[in-house]
Amino acid sequence: MNNNNPDRRVRSLARWLLSLAAGLACAAAALAQGAALPTANFAPGDPPGEWRSAAHDWANTRYSALADINTGNVAKLKVAWTFSDGTQNGHEAAPLVMGDTMYLVTPFPNISYALDLSKPGAPIKWSFAPNPSPVSIGKACCDTVNRGGVLVDGKLIYNLLDNHTVAVDLRTGKEVWRTRMGDVTHGETMTMAPFAVGKKVFVGNSGGEMGVWGWIAALDADTGKELWRAYSTGTDQEVKIGPDFKPFYDWMKGKDLGIHTWPAGMHKQGAGSVWAWISYDPELNTIYYGTSNPGPRVPAQRPGYNLWTSTVFARDADTGMAKWAYQFTPHDQWDYDGVNENILMDIQWQGKPRKVLVHFDRNAFAYTIDRTNGEVLAAQPFAYQNWSKGIDLKTGMPVVNPAMQPRPNVKLPNVCPPDIGGKDWQPSSFSPRTGLVYAGIFNICMDLTDHPQSYIPGTPYDGMEMKRYAGPGDNWGEFMAWDPVAAKKVWSIKEKFMTMSGTLATAGDLVFYGTADGWFRAVDARNGKVLWSYKLGSGVIGQPVTFTGPDKRQYVAVYSGVGGAAMVSASSPGFPPRGSTLYVFSIEGESIHSGPGQLQTEASMPAARHDHGMGSNP
């Protein structure tokens, strides 16, 4: 490589000047508004070169302070090494990194791997096969995915599809504890990445289309003992609502609304599962998370607001008692789960500092909410939608378009967004350098027909029949930057296929994301210019991360393996095959002992190969 190439230096300088100009313009705009850029608390303050949890920090920013890879050199990214786990289902997990080891969790059968980053090619240190029950395969709504684990006190803790949470010793790969969280035969599964604060690990269930009773629970990280559990529907005691529960809006105030907003006896099959992301504010000692759609998905069978489904909860992390709640989509008629991530940040709002959470809901509205009391400060569409005429900020209620309300056995055409939303579970990221939030979103609509459904434990309690297709413009996906204070889109990139991956923002003023047809991209965080793209072997629906290797080099990693909700466009020309490969990138593809003549092969343990029989842990 010739670093003295004058044309290259000129281009690099030009890119730097453009980036600087964009940054100055952004800062000038903030000053003109009389407000500083939004900020976030990046606790627990893990080493910047490590990635110990799916969201990287409690605020769910997915922001990295690493900047060795930046707008000036990202075009030089090349593959450093790869790893295939051989599991041909949706790969939605974030790789985790601590010290000289990377930890991976696969879709069912939920094998975990430890890879040695200090050796050429990152060989396997150990692998662990938990052998979850195959019964869970038939109970999983939307592919047998897993969104990863969390590293806590020398353990990798993650969920199994058959409704167990397991802890594995980081050094030996041996099981430390396993806790049964529910009954898979009744339709309960678990796909979320656990969330840890201190010695507490928070987990929730999946199965909103199976008539489950949704819940969140806290476990002791050392023993796996359940500390508390809060249901999403039911009596105030079951939902853990007490005298300190103070929702901002009057229509959510009252006794036992988790029962009284449902037809008699229906709340225990009312879903409200907790299958995605949790955030935590250490100053308020409060966790924030969302609940899924109500069950059944046919709204005519469950008149009422159906509290507390499609809702964001704020709870005391120690006791689980609810502090406030806000229902995004009362009496949800379109399957608009409220489970998407809540990014915690501090902003200047109308001249005053406010602690807020920013949430891109499946209903296609972006919410900026005061996280101390649940007041909606702003709610504006971020994707094409026609189900609502807006959100009334005085009441917090959506103004529903009567023409978009389904009726049993009547086809309702062109409902936007569809059941998978203007954005699904794929997590957004936030950069304090720009004050912007970055998200992969959808441009999809559906024809909807409801069919009345009876409840039979362990079988689909659904009733929705959907035909999904691209919305106006014919593109399925989009990647955007959003201003959470102005409540508007700053820039966006149209994508032919769904943008179904998580996002990663870095101090190098880069944002990374992937597409369902397998493109992995790096974008200038300030102006949205695509600076680098690489075509992977399968679609990208995982969560990209960045880390520093033992060689002090910055890497970017992402799984390629399409599946999950992205399969709704599987019949489109150009849709890729399934896959199971982790790609790790570095500048010029350099890594530990890379270069000509490398012949070393070394590993401590064999893989726990599920295709050779579910053997015991080595």
UniProtKB/TrEMBL annotation:
Its cofactor is pyrroloquinoline quinone. It comes from the Bacteria. Residues 608-618 have a biased composition (Basic and acidic residues). Residues 51-377, 491-556 form the Pyrrolo-quinoline quinone repeat domain. Its EC number is 1.1.2.-. Residues 595-618 are annotated as: Disordered. GO terms for molecular function: oxidoreductase activity. It holds the Pfam family PQQ. Keywords: Metal-binding, Oxidoreductase, PQQ, Signal. Residues 1-27 form the signal peptide. Belongs to the bacterial PQQ dehydrogenase family. PANTHER family: QUINOPROTEIN ALCOHOL DEHYDROGENASE (CYTOCHROME C) (PTHR32303), QUINOPROTEIN GLUCOSE DEHYDROGENASE (PTHR32303:SF4). This is PQQ-dependent dehydrogenase, methanol/ethanol family. The lineage of its organism: Bacteria, Pseudomonadati, Pseudomonadota, Betaproteobacteria, Burkholderiales.
